[in-house]
Write a structure and sequence with these properties.
The longest helix is centred in the last third of the chain and has 11 residues. By secondary structure, the chain is an alpha/beta fold. The relative contact order is 0.17. The protein has one domain: Metallo-beta-lactamase, Chain A (4-Layer Sandwich), CATH 3.60.15. A hairpin with a 2-residue loop joins strand 7 and strand 8. The chain has 8 helices and 14 strands.
Length: about 260
């Protein structure tokens, strides 16, 4: 039974695509799948709706997808392309007149409190302010009936929080954005998952992200039922790249919805 719907809010790297001032084939492409906002997903289950990250394009993404309610946000890390839509959470706080539960590592929550100090200080909050209710991820946790198991992933000088979604006793989804490798313990946690969503920045190697070949090697070890690449730059054209991949590995694109 499919109980989780994932909507890809954005699938691009920090520049977004098209890239400012670029005339490359992908940036000039007419294929709508080559237009990529910054990376984030919306997850809907029968009892809960939440986002993973709030990229700078978050308002536009919510309007495009018709998102009107939000129960929580999970943050993978505090790089700007994953957090700068934070202030747009205020509308959800206003509509339902409540705090917004946010989940992240201790470092991520500390960075959010520094960048968005006005939302985290002790002064009285207006109804229209963001009112975060911070929860430190220090082990598995539940959102509704979905059990989220955090996995640590290296990303340059920091670690990001990957997530494995368990529901009904099965591993439904593994989400691994922004990583330069997938450690053995993370692979073990995700092995045999129904759907894997994984960083695949470009064809050439990169110091802080998986390349397509490196992502393919991880897929071969984890052996998911289906895989979607995410966080792609303008070196990756959608149709050309997908033609090189097996049918059980696809490129995600903005607005894609899948059920798990």
């Amino acid at each position: 039974m499919r109980e989780i719907e994932i909507t890809f809010l954005g699938t691009g790297t920090s520049h977004g695509i098209p890239v400012i001032g670029c005339e490359c084939r992908v940036c000039k492409s007419r294929d709508p799948r080559d237009k990529r906002l910054r990376t984030g997903i919306f997850v809907s289950t029968p009892e809960c709706a939440f986002c993973v990250d709030t990229p700078p394009d978050f308002r536009t993404q919510c309007l495009r997808e018709g998102i009107q309610t939000l129960d929580a946000v999970v943050y993978t890390h505090s790089h700007s392309d994953h957090i700068l839509g934070f202030d747009d959470l205020r509308r959800f706080c206003e509509v339902e007149d409540r705090q917004m539960p946010i989940y992240g590592s201790a470092r991520t929550l500390s960075d959010l409190a520094r960048v968005f100090q006005y939302a985290f200080d002790d002064s009285p909050k207006f109804r229209t302010y963001v009112r975060p209710e911070a929860h430190t991820i220090d082990g598995p946790f539940f959102l509704g009936e979905t059990r989220l198991v955090p996995i640590s992933l290296p990303h340059g000088r920091i670690e990001t929080t990957g997530l494995v979604f368990h529901r009904g006793g099965r591993k439904r989804l593994a989400y691994m954005t922004d990583c330069q490798a997938v450690p053995a313990e993370a692979e073990d946690e995700a092995r045999g998952v129904d759907v894997l969503v994984i960083d695949a920045l470009r064809h050439a190697p990169h110091s802080t992200h998986l390349s397509i070949d490196e992502a393919l090697a991880v897929v071969d070890r984890i052996r998911p039922g289906m895989t979607y690449f995410i966080h792609m730059c303008h070196d990756v054209g959608h149709s050309v790249t997908e033609a090189m991949l097996p049918p059980e590995i696809r490129l995600s694109y903005d607005g894609l919805r899948i059920q798990v």
